[in-house]
Amino acid sequence: MKQLMKQRSGKPRAGRPARSTRRGRRALLAALLGLTLLGGAQARTVKIITAQTLELRNQDGQEIVIIAGENVEIRLDDDIIKAKRVEFNRTRRTLTLVGYATYHTAKDGQDLKGNDLVVDLGSEALTGQDVLISDADLEIRGAAVERVPGQLRAQGGYFTPCAKCGRTPNDYAFRAQQLVVYPGDRLIAYRAQLLIAERPVLYLPVVVLPLNDQARQPRLAVGRGDPDGLTVEADLPFSVGSSVLGTTLLRYYQYRSPSFGGGVDLHAYAPNRLIDRADLYFLALPKPFLVGSDGEPERQSGYDLDLNFSVKGRVPLMLAEKDMEYALNVVRRDIGLPPEDKSRGVTLVDFSAQADYPRFSARLNYNDRFGPPPEQALSRELRHPEVIVDVKPFTVSLGGLGDVSADFKFSAGQYTAASNPLSRSASLQGLNYTTSRLEEVHALSYTRPLWRGAEIAASNTFTGRYYGNGSRTVQLEFGVKFTQRWAGSNTFTVEQRYLRYEGTSPFAFDVVSRRLSAPLDIRVDTVPVRDTTFSVTYTRDGFRQPGQKERTQVFGVSGSVNRKPVSAYYNLSYDFATDNLSSGSFSVTVGDPDSGKLTLVPATPALLATPTAPAVPARAAYYRRSSAWPFPNLSFTVSGGYALQTRIQPVTVKATVTDGGARTNYFSVSGTYDLQGQAETLRLNGGTLQGEERNLTNLDVNYSASATFDTVLNPLSVSGSESLNLRDPYLSGNHNVNWRGFTFNTNHSLDLETDPATKESGTVNFSVGNPAGSATNWNLNYGGPYDLRRVGFTRPQLTAAFKTTVPGQRLAASASVNLRGLDQPRTELARASLDAAWQKGRFAVSGQATYSRVRSGEYPNDQASDTLVVDPLRVGVGLGKGPRPDVYLTASLRQTFRYVGGVRQDDKPISPVFGLTWDRCCWALQGEYDVGLKRLRIAIGLPGQTYSIFDRLDGSNSYPFKPYAPTY
Question: Does residue 205 have a cis peptide bond before it, meaning omega lies within 30 degrees of 0?
Fold first, then answer.
C-alpha cells in the first residue's frame, strides 16, 4: 500500500487511464483517513470531495498524508474545508491548511478565512494567523486566532456589524487588543476603540455585545406619570471574565419612599470545578402607592424583594462511583403581591445532595421556610433536614435451592407538614405539626425452580414509619406464588398474599388507610385450540373488608377468539359472597376483507421417515382462502357488558360496508340499545315530566367516499357523520363535499326537545368556498341559531370573504350581514373590512377600512353604535442608488368615526401621518409625525432592537428611551 501511495497521481501508470488512477487513489486515501480518525474516542469523519495529488510520507517517525491541488475540498463531519494544500498528520491527528484557506463550521455557521490554519482533530481546536471570521451578524478580523469548541479568541481584533451591508467604509466598528467570542451568545472586547467611518472617536476598557439574545440587550426607559412622578428604568449588561454574564438593574421613582431601587441578574457558567451553573436574580423595588380609603394614593415605606438564587455543581468524593451532585434553590417573591397576601416576606430554601457508592447511595434533603409563620396548612412538607440511605439491590444464589434478593432503604429527619386530622395529638398542635420521623423500607424475595415448568416465589415488602411523638404506621405485604407451565402457552398459578396496613401518622402527606386482607388467587390460562385463549380465575379474601358482610369470593372466566372471520373477547366475574354477577363485558366482530382473495400455497415434496419422525407424503400446490365469509366488504360488531352498580350496560351493534377496491370508502351504521330501558325526561315549564321508556338510545352514521374514476379532471370526495341521541333527543352532524377545488359543507347541532320558553334549538350552517391556503380564496357562509318549534333561523347571518394574492399585489375583503329572522327584525350590515396593497419596485400603495355595528336595548327602541376606522391611503417609496434603498418615505391618512344613534361622537379631522426611515443596514434612524395629533416621535434602531429617543405630543416633551414599534 505504501508503495502505491508514494506514487504521484499526476503521473498515472502505463496502461491505465489517469481518471481511473485518481479515482482509485482518492477512494484508497478516503478509506485510510476514515480508519485513522475512527480509532479514537472523539472520532471524526473525513471525506475528500476534490483533490489532484495524494501522497503518503514518513518524516521523523510521523505519518503525514499530503492532499494538494488547485481546489482541494474536504468535509470534516459537516464542516467544509477549502485550500490548495492540506497536510494530515496521522500521528498527531492534526490537519494543517498550508497557505490561504477557508474553514466553514456547520454548528456555528461561521466562515474562517486565513493563512496556515491548523485543526486538531482530537480537541476540535483551530489556530491561525490573519484570520477573517464572518457569520450572519458580525465580521471579525484577527492577527492571531485560536478556536476551541464554544469559544473563539483573537489577538489584535477588529469587528463590525456593518460588514454585510457592502458599504465602504463601515459606519461603525471596534478595534480591540483581545476579542473573545461565544458563538450565538456574546462578544467581549478588551481595551477597545470605537470607530466611526474608520476613525477612532472613543476608548472603552471593555465592550460586551450580545449576539441573538434579546434578554441581554441594554434597555433605558424614562417616563412620567401619577402617582410615581418621574421614573427611570435601566438594564445594563456586563461580563466578568469569560464565564459570568450579568445585567445591572437600576430603578428610580420620584415620589416613592425610598426613591431608588436596584438589583442584578447574574448567570455563571462553570466558574470553577465545583460549580456547573449558578444563577442569581435579585431586585429591591420601592413599595408602590396604595389606594387609600378616600381613593387617594397612599405612600408606603420600604422595599419589596424578589430573589431567585440557584446553583448546581459536583464535588469529587473518594471511593464514590461519580462526583456528588448538589443543587440549591432560594426563592422569594414580593413584587406585585398585595399587602394582605400571606406569601409576602416568605423565603423558600431547597437543597439536595446525592452521592453514589458501589453498595449504596446517600442523599441529603433540606427544605425550609423563613419569614412570617404560616397561618394555613402547608402545601408541601418541610425537611430540616432529611437523610436517605438507599442500599442497592443484591441477589444471593443458593445453588440448587434458588435465589434470594433484597433491597433496603432508610430515611430519617425532622419534618414540618400539615397535620393529619385523624391524629388527635397532631390536631391539638394546630394546622401544622413538627416532629422527627424514621422510615425503614425493605423488599425481600425468594425464587426457586421445583421441577420442569414449575417455580415457587415468595416475597415480603415492609414499610415502617416511627415518629417522635410515639406514633407509628406499618405497611406489610407477604405473598407466596406457585407457577406451573406446560405445553408452551398453558399456565397454572396459585398465589396467597397477606396485607396489613395499620397505624396513624401525625402528618397528612403520609396517611395510611387501614387494611387487613389475605387474598388467595388461583388462575389457569390455556390455549385449547389455535387462535383461542381461555382463562379461569378464583379469588377469595380471608378477611372481611370494612363495609362488607361476607368475605370476597370472586370467580372469573375470560377468553378470546381470533380466527377469521370471527374476532371475539369476553370476561365474566361472579361473586359467591353476594351471589351476584360482579361484572362482564364482550365484543364480537364478524368480517374478513380478504375472504374474496385466493392465496397460492406452494407444493411441498415428500419427506422420508427418520428415527424420530414419520414419513411425510408430497403435497400439490393449491389455493387457500383466509375464511369462508361470503361478504368480504361487510363486517358486523357487537359489544356490551354488565356492572353490578348499573346492571346490564347498553349493547352497541355496528355494521360497516367498505369498497373492495378502495378501503378508504366506507359506510357504517351503529345503534346502541339499552336492554333495561330508561324513562325519557321531557323538559317543560316549571319542571320535568317522565315519559315512556326508550330502549334504543343512539343511532350513528359515518361515511367517506372518493371517486375512483376521472380523479384528475373531476376529483370528487364526500365524507360526513350524523349522530342521533334518542334518550335525550339531540341531533348533530357534519357533512362535506369536495369537487374541483370547491368545498361544500353543512353542520348542525340541534336539541330536538326543548322548553317552550327556549327560543333556540341549536345552530345550522351552510358554506361553500375554496380550500384555505390557495392564492385566490373565497368563502360564503349562511346560518346561525335555529328554532325547530317555529321552523326557522332566529338570528341568521350571511358572511362572505374574498382574498387574492399575486406578486406585488394583495386584495382582501369580507362582510357579514344580519338577515331578517324570527328574532331579528332587520337586515343590516354588521361587519365589513377592505384591505388592498400594491407594490412596484420601490413604490408601494395600500389602504384599509373596517366597519362594525352593535345594538343595545330592545326592539324597536334599540340603538345602534357604529365604528368606522379608515386608512384610505398609505404611500411608501424607497430612495437610493444601490440595490437596497437607503431612505424610505411614508405617508398615510388615518381617521376613526364613531356614531351612536346616527350622531357622531367626535369631530376630529382626518389626520395625515408622515414617516421617514434612514436605513444604514446595521443601524437605522426612524421618525414619525402625526399632523392631527401634532405628535413627533424619533427612534433609532440597532441590530435586534429599536429605541425611542424623542416623543413630542401637543407641546409637551418626553424622552422615553424605550423600545417601540413604529406604526408605519
Answer: no
516 neighbors 498 (Cβ within 8 angstroms) = no
pTM: 0.62
**Residue position matching grid coordinates 357533512:** 735
Q: In this structure, are residues 101 and 113 in contact, taking their beta carbons and an 8 Å threshold?
A: yes
Chain centroid offset of residue 433 CA: 40
User: What does the alpha-carbon distance between residue 199 and residue 161 come to, in Å, rounded to a whole number?
Assistant: 16
Task: Return d(Cα 96, Cα 89) in angstroms, integer.
Answer: 8
- What's the CA gap between 537 and 521, in Å, rounded? 7
Q: Which residue, among 504, 501, 507, has the nearest Cα to 420 in the 3D structure?
A: 507
**What nine digits make up the cell of 924?**
437605522
Contact 242, 268 (CB under 8 A): no
Q: Taking the chain (968 residues) in consecutive chunks of 10 residues, what is each chunk's mean pLDDT?
A: 35 40 46 41 68 82 84 86 86 83 80 83 77 74 76 82 76 86 75 87 79 65 81 82 81 92 90 90 93 83 94 92 94 90 92 94 95 90 94 90 94 94 88 94 95 94 94 95 91 95 93 91 92 93 72 88 91 85 91 85 89 87 86 91 83 89 83 73 46 74 85 81 90 92 92 86 94 84 93 94 91 95 91 92 90 88 88 86 81 85 78 86 85 81 68 54 36
Would you tell me how many other CB atoms lie within 10 Å of the CB of residue 797? Answer: 19
Residue written as cell 409637551?
A: 956
Cis peptide bond N-terminal to 593, omega within 30: no
Positive or negative, the CA dihedral 448, 451, 452, 458 is negative
Distance, in Å, from the CA atom of 530 to the CA atom of 512, rounded to the nearest integer, reads: 47
The one-character DSSP state at 400 is G
Strands 275-286 and 260-272: antiparallel
What HEC string does 141-179 produce? EEEEEEEECCEEEEEEEEEECCHHHCCCCCCEEEEEEEE
- Give CB contacts under 8 A, 24+ apart, made by 946-954: 947/220
**What's the distance, CA 560 to chain centroid?**
40
Measured distance CA(248)–CA(236) in Å, rounded: 5
Using only C-alpha atoms, the chain has a radius of gyration, in whole angstroms, of 41
3-state secondary structure of 800: strand
Any idea what the Cα angle at residue 619 is, between residues 616 and 622, rounded to 5°? 150
Please tell me whether the peptide bond between 860 and the residue prior to it is cis, using omega within 30 degrees of 0. Answer: yes
Provide the β-strand partners of residue 681. Answer: 690
Query: 620: helix, coil or strand?
Result: coil
Distance between CA 343 and CA 781 in Å, rounded? 52
C-alpha cell recorded at residue 324: 456528588
Cα-to-chain-centroid distance, residue 406: 40
CB 710 within 8 Å of CB 718:
no
CA–CA dist 403, 391 (Å, integer): 18
Tell me what percent of the chain is helix, strand and coil, each rounded to the nearest 5.
5, 65, 35
Which three cell numbers, joined as nine digits, stand for 577?
359472597
Among residues 960, 965, 957, 875, which one has the least CA distance to residue 924?
A: 965
Closest-CA residue to 758 (of 697, 663, 683, 694): 683
What is the DSSP secondary-structure string of 429-451?
Answer: T-SEEEEEEEEEEEEEEEEEE-S
Count of Cβ atoms closer than 10 Å to residue 859 Cβ: 10
| Closest to 540 (Cα-Cα) out of 582, 497, 491 | 497
CA nearest to 853, candidates 894, 801, 782, 797: 797
For β-strands 94-105 and 62-76, DSSP reports them as: unpaired
∠702-705-710 over CA atoms, to 5°? 170
Residues 126, 118: contact at Cβ < 8 Å? yes
The answer to whether the peptide bond before residue 421 is cis (omega within 30 degrees of 0) is no
- Quickly count: other Cβ atoms within 10 Å of residue 419's Cβ: 22
Amino acid identity of residue 61, one-letter, is G
**Signed CA dihedral, 132, 135, 136, 139: sign only:** negative
